Amino acid sequence: MPDRTDKENFVLQTPEHVATVEAGTHTLQSVGAGVELSASDSYGLTGEARSQFRLVLGRFLQQRLAIIGLCTFVGLGLASVLVGHFWQYSYTDITNDLNFSPSWSHPFGTNSIGGDMFAQVMAGVQKDIEIALTVAAMATLIGVTIGAIAGFYRGFVDSLLMRFVDLVLVLPVLAVLILLSSKLAKQSNNWLGLAAIIGLLSWTYVARLVRADFLSLRERDFVEASRALGATNRRIIVKHMLPNAIGPITVNATLTVALSIIFESTLSFLGLGVQPPQVSLGLLVNQGQDSATTEWWLFVFPVAFLIILILSIFLIGDGLRESFDPKKSRVRA
Amino acid sequence: MSDPALQVDHLEVDFQTKEGVVHAVRGVDLTLKPGEVLGIVGESGSGKSVTALACMGLLPKSARVSGSIRFKGDELLGQKEKQLTTVRGTGIAMIFQDPMTSLNPVYTIGWQITEAILAHQDMTKEEARQRAIDLLAKVGIPNPAERVDNFPHEFSGGMRQRAVIAIAMANDPDVILADEPTTALDVTVQAQVLDSLRTALSETGASLLLITHDLGVIAGLSDRVMVMYAGRPVEIGTAEDVFYHPSMPYTLGLLGSLPRLDSAGKERLRQIPGAPPSMLGDRVGCPFAPRCPLAQEVCTTTEPELTVVESVTSEAGEHKAACHFAVEVGRGDHGKVFSDGVTDNVIA
């Protein structure tokens, strides 16, 4: 017997294992401290699930590009909020400086009616992030719910939900928005309506992804084992299967953020998205395109920020994908 | 005598498939007394696992189940899912074949044991965690206080299966169903897992339904043995009866295909010619007849019922076999029923 014990301990001494053991221990300590873990959050991703989060975070932090992406994204978000509050001009201000090229008082110049482009671009960044996060949250929530139910129950429920997904997929998004844009334009907070529409049209991919994952997960032994222990369907779905699908869901949510920014920009560029006096990057690109050769700053800054924003999100998504992949223990920088 | 822990009567399970109806289980009767270990042996597809899953109510919806399964006198068949969830875990616990996949990879071992405990018992998280550590210690996991925070991938196969046994023990079940608990493990680890299983039985006082195709495991652990073939029990009796006085040619074949330490010289292992029958559609006669060297005319026309045969152990009537020639087989020299010239499987 002592021999066996030694062997098992010996096996554990490889660096990887030590790292994960530590991660696990930390989490359970935090569980011990957090007395709030009671019946109220028995269905959430509580303490122990966070240990997986820790593993993923560890791998994420080893990737230089992903960190650059994350810093850029968070930095842009913070900067846009700060600029909105503290910059001397608001994006709605109209100054007497018409068509100024970039200078100290107007770092990104001004447009033909005297609007400060720095304030406008930053407001656009903020609006884009707001829209994108709303869309991603909506799309993920709807998609995960529908995909999980379809994949878990299969059969008739699955067919019904997936045909509904097909239906939503074939809706011509542009046509829908053109139809709704006249109504949207009248509202003061039309970006929320816009986000809702994009969200309602973009959950289908998540639903398919989660369904596919659940179809495979439901056949795994641990699902049957937890049923053999008396777990209910709801508990199996929420506590046992969803955490196993969290990787693809997170990665996809990130990509949805990026894609909805692109989509919003497209719509705004076509005049179907965010309406003045609110600004978005797409709208600014649209307004600046005519003068791109003469007043270059009206065009270049919005486009540059749009690209940086989207690129940073894609980098985050890429990093997340690598982090969630259990086969990638050694992460390249 | 008290109620049997588990009583199965005339259990039949059919699956509707594109090719037709598959009769996976065709009339299983079994009684599991409190504290008893009943081993079920048989080759793949003989209906062992389906029988176990039926007892848990875990068969897919496409399965048609008839008969009766009573747990401590209460009928389980036809029960609502809600009632079954209260029996599962507390009344009947199940150990699955492959410990690599029967633990959830995203949670720690401790979390999974704790979950099982908290699902059925009123305990605080700390108490449940302490119990989880105790359970791990009982099944022989070294350093349980630290190992409880490990993830399944940090456990070896044998340790995982022991953790699964700990989960099965967690709620003091009255019946443990073990579906080939050692099949996925290598031989040295099997012994450790069987030890843990013995501990689990003595700790909980549970009866065990041990499903395996490993005769050695059965011989070491079970009080009674049931041999299944083509969805039916073909021989049932105490371990001594079945192993020393097999009365059904199929049992003989199974025993003859095992290497023996006490055999003299170089003996060929005997194999049972042919393959198990397809379970599709209806058939007449003994399902083993096409492979049976003793088959006669009657075997191809009439399927034999389980009948009482001579028992070496005290309780008469406990040893039953389904063979038209059970008495003759029981008396004969089992080694010679299957000829040894037909196989190339030589153990040198």
Question: Please, could you describe this protein's structure?
Answer:
The complex is a heterodimer of chains A (333) and B (348). In chain A, 72% of the residues lie in helices and 0% in strands. Chain A has 333 residues and is mainly alpha-helical. The longest helix of chain A has 37 residues, at 117-153. Chain B has 348 residues and is of the alpha/beta class. Helices cover 31% and strands 21% of the residues of chain B. Chain B has twelve helices and twelve strands. Chain B has helices at 48-56, 81-87, 109-120, 125-138, 144-147, 157-169, 187-204, 215-221, 239-244, 249-256, 297-301, 326-331, and strands spanning 6-17, 20-32, 37-41, 63-71, 74-75, 92-95, 175-179, 207-211, 224-229, 232-238, 307-308, 320-321. An eight-stranded mixed beta sheet of chain B has the order 6-7-8-3-9-10-12-11, with helices on both faces. A four-stranded antiparallel beta sheet of chain B has the order 2-1-4-5, with helices on one face. In chain B, a hairpin with a 2-residue loop joins β9 and β10 (232-238). In chain B, α3 (109-120) runs parallel beside α6 (157-169) and α4 packs across α6. The longest helix of chain B has 18 residues, at 187-204. The N and C termini of chain B lie far apart (50 Å). Chains A and B meet through α1, α2, α3, α10 and α11 of A and α2, α3 and α6 of B.
